[in-house]
Structure formats: structure tokens, C-alpha cells
């Protein structure tokens, strides 16, 4: 596998794991088969002209887009199986980490990975438990005629999703602990970020309390942070598509599109609240001067 660190804003980074070709002797796991089966079924429902399957897909896609991109990123990292643990610990299979040198200093790459692997660990464990508690409560809905048991299957999916994200984080922690990562700066990523037109969305206050990306302040000024106390976008949708094309990773496009959309919305919301508070403060100051 190969890991990518892609800064979305000056405070937030997308983690993505590219699954490389499996060895001929290695069989597809049941989890991979089930995931592929579900994807094919979902795709088939999307092609429907109408009916409850089409409605489920429409509402489902709306809900899926709002699942935090950090969760999707961790889910892309395969669980640490015993076979993989043995291969990696022997050093037979080091994991490459690709990142833009113009935005992330090499010394900070491991810290960014550690943050992404651990910051949501407790949340995924807690949400997994709640999903498991809710599944037997919603299961009887399936006894009703005709009506599909959407709540139950949604909780099953969310439980699996939280488990995969938690497992992906544990895998990253294992790689960091055993120093099994090879850091590879990418000129391709640097070139894409360099063509990003400015100005981009920004907010005077950050949208997260645990920043997982920091802009490197280079001596030649190529990557000066224009908003050091707040947060500024580093990527838009158009350049996200350019990035997936330059890397020849079409499967990355939906991950980047979702991440950029979520961070843009968070920055717009934060900036709006900051503007409202400034107006209120200005009104208070104006009344005091009268």
C-alpha cells in the first residue's frame, strides 16, 4: 500500500491509502469481497429510473457525503492482519508516504500521521458501541411486510465504518511505532499546489482545535501562510481533479471532492459566525461611545 498526505487547508489534511496490486498468492479477504458486492449493488440501484431503491440511493448519498472525510481516509487503510503485521515487521514491505514538500516539512510528516491516526480514535470506539446497541432495537422493523429495514442496515454500515476507521488508525500507529515508513516528497503534488489561484476561502479562526497540517514558511516565501491565526483553503475542486489526473489515481477524486467540500463549508460557516460577532462587537462599541 501507499499513503498520501494531501493538505486541504492550512489546518487540515486528507489521508488516503492507495491499495497496490495484491500478490498472486494473496486472496481477496471476505471484507473486500463484501465491500465490492455492496458497491456493485449500490451502483445498480443508482441506475434505476425510480422506486424505493432510487430513493434510498439519493438519501444515502446525501448522508454519505456528510460522513467526515477523516473517517473515509482512515477507512482506506486496510486493517492490520497477522500476515501483514509479519510482512511489515520483517521490513519486507515498507510503506511509502507521498506528500508535498512545499507545504509539509519532512520533520512534521510523522506528527501529521500520528494526529490523523489518533485524534478520532475514542470517537470511533464510542460510535461503534452505540451502533451495536441500536442494531437489535431496529432489527424487528424487518418483520414489517414490504418495507426495507433501512435503519438496521444503516447502523450495520456505520458500525462497520467506525470499525474500519479505528482499525486503519491502529495500522498507522503500528507503522509509526516500528518505523516502517518511507517518506517521499512529490514534485507532482508541489506542481499542482503551485498552480492554485488565490485568493482562497479563509476564516480568522480555525475550524479545528487539533490542526493536522501546517504550511511551511520557506525562506524564499513560496509557502507563506496568509492567515497564521486562522485557516485558509489550499485546494479547490478544479485543482483536486487536476491532482487525481496528475497522479493517475481516479479513485482518489471522490475522496478529494468530499474533503474539499466539507472543509470549504466549515470555513464559510466559521467565517460567517466571526463576521456576525464582529458586527455585534462594533454595535456595542458604538453604543459605548455615545
| Structure summary, number of beta strands | 6
Q: Provide the low-confidence segments as ranges.
A: 217-221
> Which strand order does the major sheet show?
2-1-3-4
Helix content: 55-70%
Topology:
Elements: E1 2-7, E2 13-18, H1 30-46, H2 52-65, H3 69-75, H4 82-89, E3 95-99, H5 106-118, H6 121-138, H7 150-177, E4 181-185, H8 187-194, E5 202-203, E6 231-232, H9 237-247, H10 253-289
Parallel strand pairs: 1-3, 3-4
Antiparallel strand pairs: 1-2, 5-6
Helix pairs in contact: 3-7, 3-10, 5-7, 6-7, 8-9, 9-10
Descriptive notes:
By secondary structure, the protein is α/β, with parallel strands linked by helices. It has one domain (2-20, 60-289). Helices cover 56% and strands 9% of the residues. The protein has ten helices and six strands. The strands form two sheets. A four-stranded mixed beta sheet has the order 2-1-3-4, sandwiched between helices. A two-stranded antiparallel sheet has the order 5-6. A hairpin with a 5-residue loop joins strand 1 (2-7) and strand 2 (13-18). The chain is globular and about 60 Å long.
Amino acid at each position: 500500500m501507499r499513503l498520501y498526505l494531501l493538505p486541504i487547508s492550512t489546518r487540515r489534511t486528507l489521508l488516503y491509502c492507495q491499495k497496490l496490486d495484491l500478490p498472486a498468492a494473496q486472496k481477496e479477504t471476505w471484507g473486500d469481497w463484501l465491500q465490492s458486492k455492496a458497491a456493485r449493488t449500490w451502483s445498480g440501484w443508482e441506475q434505476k429510473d425510480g422506486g424505493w431503491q432510487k430513493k434510498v440511493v439519493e438519501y444515502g448519498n446525501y448522508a454519505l457525503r456528510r460522513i467526515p472525510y477523516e473517517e473515509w481516509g482512515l477507512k482506506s487503510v486496510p486493517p492490520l492482519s497477522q500476515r501483514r503485521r509479519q510482512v511489515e515487521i520483517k521490513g519486507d514491505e515498507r510503506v511509502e508516504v507521498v506528500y508535498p514538500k512545499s507545504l509539509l516539512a519532512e520533520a512534521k510528516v510523522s506528527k501529521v500521521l500520528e494526529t490523523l491516526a489518533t485524534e478520532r480514535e475514542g470517537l470511533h470506539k464510542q460510535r461503534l458501541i452505540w451502533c451495536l446497541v441500536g442494531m437489535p432495537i431496529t432489527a424487528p422493523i424487518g418483520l414489517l411486510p414490504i418495507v426495507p429495514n433501512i435503519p438496521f442496515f444503516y447502523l450495520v454500515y456505520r458500525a462497520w465504518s467506525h470499525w474500519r476507521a479505528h482499525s486503519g488508525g491502529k495500522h498507522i500507529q503500528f507503522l509509526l511505532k516500528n518505523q516502517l515508513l518511507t517518506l517521499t516528497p512529490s514534485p507532482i503534488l508541489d506542481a499542482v499546489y503551485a498552480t492554485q489561484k488565490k485568493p482562497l476561502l479563509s476564516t480568522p479562526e480555525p475550524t479545528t482545535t487539533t490542526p493536522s497540517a501546517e504550511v511551511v514558511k520557506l525562506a524564499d516565501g513560496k509557502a507563506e501562510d496568509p492567515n497564521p491565526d486562522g485557516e485558509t483553503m489550499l485546494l479547490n475542486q478544479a485543482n483536486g481533479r487536476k491532482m487525481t489526473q496528475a497522479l493517475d489515481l481516479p479513485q482518489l477524486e471522490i475522496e478529494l471532492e468530499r474533503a474539499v467540500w466539507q472543509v470549504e463549508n466549515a470555513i464559510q460557516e466559521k467565517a460567517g459566525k466571526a463576521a456576525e460577532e464582529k458586527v455585534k462587537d462594533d454595535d456595542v462599541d458604538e453604543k459605548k461611545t455615545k
